[in-house]
Amino acid sequence: MAGLDAALAGAVAFIAGNILIDTVRVTLPTSGEPVLNEDTGQLEYPAAGQVLYEGPGAVLSTNALGELPGVPDAQQPWAGATRSRYRLYTPLAAPIPPKDAIVTVVGVHDPGRTSLMGRSWICNDPGRVSTVEVVRITSLDQNRVPEAGP
Fold first, then answer.
1. Which of 6, 116, 130, 144 is the most buried (most CB within 10 A)?
2. Is residue 78 pLDDT above 60, yes or no?
3. Is pLDDT larger for residue 73 or for residue 48?
4. What is the mean pLDDT of the chain?
């Protein structure tokens, strides 16, 4: 498939130079129980887990924002929460993120676009792989941001 790889090299270079222009970090989820901060009343989680990848990437939203699960789980005693679907794009040389890994954007190409900073996403499944690839794609769901108190 060397001929196909050579034919796709232009697409890989275009994606690397025009889409994978921010800096993303992929970490394993933290281990350990949260601790109550008595000053703020908020639960604080242990520091981030092991860094699996930090480098060029992009987090892009998909068309399914605000999607609700159609069938509630039998073990779920509450209405389903909305889901915020995103995709992580990383170079093919980056490791395949495992399920439940945490993704954050740690650097943006345009200083005016800081809305991604401070958010985090969880990997729904391991990164996708296929026989023909130009970029690694991993499905994400945005972690909910705590709402401000009264």
1. 116
2. no
3. 48
4. 81
Residue 41: both structure tokens together: 């009343």
**How many C-beta neighbours within 10 Å does residue 23 have?**
15
Q: What is the pTM of this model?
A: 0.74
Q: Write down the pLDDT at residue 66.
A: 46
Give every CB contact of residue 149 below 8 A, 6+ residues apart in sequence: 41
Eight-class DSSP state of 50: -
Q: Give SS3 for 100.
A: coil
Query: If DSSP codes are grouped into helix, strand and coil, which group holds residue 56?
Result: strand
Q: How many angstroms separate the Cα of 55 from the Cα of each of 19, 58, 70, 110, 133? A: 13, 10, 36, 16, 19
Name every residue whose Cβ is closer than 8 Å to that of residue 62 and which is 6 or more positions away in sequence: 85, 86, 87
Q: Are 52 and 101 in contact (CB under 8 A)?
A: yes
CA angle 119, 120, 122 (to 5 degrees): 155
pLDDT at residue 81 in the model: 56
Closest-CA residue to 136 (of 80, 53, 71, 42): 53
81 φ/ψ angles, rounded to the nearest 5 degrees: -85, 155
